[in-house]
Please model this.
Amino acid sequence: MATRLMVPFLSEKDDAEKSEGGIDPLGLEAIADALGTRLVPGVRERQTHPRYLTAMAVGLAVCERFDEGVFAADGVSEPWQVFEWYLVEGLVRTSSGRSRGVPGSLKASKAIAEKVPLSARRYLKTPSVFGFHGIYRLLARTLGVEQGDRLGDFGFELLDIWSRERGLHGFIGSADGPGQSLKQQLVRAIEDGLESGATARMAGWAGWNLLREHLDPLEPGDQEADLILRALRTDQKGFRTPTIEFLVSKAGQDVWNESEHSERAWHAALRITANSPLQQLLDTISLYERFCRLCQDAFDDCLCEMTRMSAKTSPKQLGELSSVQKASVEVPALFYDVLDSLDPYQMATRLRESCESLATRCSPSEWAKLLTDHHRDTQHRKPPDGKQPWFERFDDDTLMIRPLYRRDKPGRHDDSYVHAYRTTPLWSFATDLRAVS
Model:
């Protein structure tokens, strides 16, 4: 834990068991994420390479040989996790510098350098969230690669295209061929990995190169890429279809590139050709992001002012900041319009419960106190036991920024979105799948 400031007259101290919380200081991310899910179901900001879907389909086909409830010797790692260790280690071992961005690659590189096998103790702390299975599982289930922890219909179709395009006859079914040989090689490796609780192959194992050759996340085959793109462009619930259709069009590419990847500008262009439900969702995102930008800029400027002061800072001093003065007027005027806009998506209650205090009409200095109190409340509500606020508060309501959160960069003071809405991962997908220039 960071060293605490030794100052007198604190109204309350940070609990020793509370950890740092360096993201989402105003608690605005959850609604933005839910809106992004409405817009593009299955896609998350951390996703970059859709060919991990193929890797997951291969893993599901290989791991179907193992009974449900089987764990490695470590008592926690399931067969899919052992397969992930092998693939990540194989990509790193054969990378020639190309494994950058592979989830878990830094851990694998360290294990290889220390000449020890990759295992749960040496891999990601929460692989079910931060490994490639965790990152892409929702998309895999949304598209039908995985269904009920088994290979889904689209997973079978994807494996069929992949195996034929890679010359791996026999990977599906029981016929002899190079595909059957690779599958058995992977099954045996996972069996040994389960027994040892770690990857169980030496540096010279031929399987490392086979994993790179057939599952390099940057090298989908042409037919494989076409199939994944078709699946992504088919959406029965959200607006993934029109979003991708516009993104890969010449007009969509031009706007994305010429706006220097501004989602606000890109959404404005998408809105022109969108149907009414999509227009309504884009309008809601735009309005919510205007609210978020006002709050975030004011908060960032307060942090800068506290950093500049390097001493106790009063709400009155923070209220003299132009962004705080602006937000104290515009946030209350905007708040209930944002609530109305969120209501059709069942998100209004969440915003009201977390942010209604910011809608109070008051002086800039009073609003600055509301904003800093809101941040403290947001931090205290974070699971599992709350996070520490970014500044200390004294009995006289003055504040002092904690060293970890000192900053010199103020708010952006423009109309850019505070949050992201999946256009960046979709662009990465389209690039990998050769749908954009």
